[in-house]
Design brief:
It is globular and about 60 Å long. It contains twelve helices and 14 strands.
Length: 410
Amino acid sequence: MKITDLRATTVMMPLEAPLRHSNGAHWGRFVRTIVEVETDEGLIGYGEMGGGGESAELAFAGLKAYLLGHDPFQLEEMRFKICNPTASLYNNRTQLHAAIEFACLDIMGKKLGVPVHQLLGGKVRDRIDFASYLFYRLPNERTGAGEVRTIEQLLDNCRELKARHGFTVHKLKGGVYPPEYELACYRALADAFPQDRLRYDPNGALTVEEAIRFGQAIEGLNNDYYEDPTWGMNGMRRVREMVRIPTATNTVVINFEQLAANVRDPAIDVILLDTTFWGGIRPCVKAAGVCETFQLGVAVHSSGELGIQLATMLHMGAVVPNLSHAADAHYHHLTDDILVGGKLAYEDGAIRVPDGPGLGVEVDRDKLRQYAELYREHGGYPYDRDPSRPDWYALVPGGKWADPAQPGRP
C-alpha cells in the first residue's frame, strides 16, 4: 500500500463561550486542521492538529513530497523522514507528524479491520474517565450567556457539568485573576464538592514563591495534582520540594530528553501525555512505559480537540496500564463536532473507547465543509490575546491579572 495524497482542511468549531487562560483566551471557537491521508487502495485515514489556519495547510502541503509513495505501515521510517532530530533543529514538525501518524494508524486499522488500540498492544480498559475542565469564561458574544467570573458562577457551571456528564474530578484552569482570588475559588469548589477530586492549573503564571504559598494553602484538600503552577523545570522542582501535592506538567516535560532529565533530577510527579505535543500516539505509549519503569504518574492532556484527536486520546489511554488519573478534555465546551453522529457521549464522567476499525470514528463530510466555510468566513484568532482586554499581553510570571470585579465582555 502507498500514500497517494495528503490533504489539510482548516475548520472553526464554535464553543459555548470564550475560554480564558493565563496567556489569553480561546475566542469562542477552536481552530483545528483536519488531515486526510489517502492510499492507492482507496483507504482514507484522518488526523487532526490544533490551529494553524492557512499556515498549517501550507505546512502539510510542503510534506506531501515526503509522503507520496510511502507505505503508511512504515511509521518509524516516516518519523525519521519528517522529524529527523538534526533536521528538526531547522524546523519543528512534531505536531505535523502527529496528525499524519494518527491518519496512518487509522489506515492500518481500517486495512486490517481492527481498532487502533489493538495495533498498540490491546486495551486494558474500556472507558476513559475525564475531568470537568472548568474555565473562567467571557459571555457568549451572540447570547451574552455563559460567563464564569464569580465564585457562584463557577460553582453553578461545575454543578451543571457534573449533572450533565457525571464528572467526579474537577480541574480549574487559572492564571487569569489574582492568585488570592483563584485560591478562594478553588477552596469553594472543594467545599461544594467534598467527595470529588480537584486539580489546579494556572499555566505557569505564578512566581515560584506564589506557587509555594498557593500550594501550601491547598495541601489539605482532595487534590489530584498541582499542574504547572510556575514555569520551568527548576521552578517546578523548588515547588515540589516545598508543597506536599504531586506536581504535574504538560509544558516542561514534552519529549524524551526532558523526561530523562526529570528522571535524573525529579521536578514532576505526573506526566500529562498529549498525542499532539509528543508527536503521536506511539511516542505517548513509549513515554508511558518509561514512566511505568520509574513510577511516575501518567495522565492524558487536552490541547483543544475535536473528535478525531479525542479518539487518539481514548486509544492511547486504553492501552497504557499506568494511567492513574482522569484525562483532561475541552470537548464538552464544543457546540458540535465534525463526526458522523455528532459528539461522542460522556457516560458517568467517562467516554467509551471506540472499537471500530482504525480510530473508530468517521468524518461527516457535510460538517467538514460547513465548519471549513465558517473558518473562511471568520478566520483565526490570536491565542495569546484576550478579546476583553485589547491592550493586554501576557507576562510569565503573571501579574497583569484581570479584575474579578469587572464583568467580562465578549
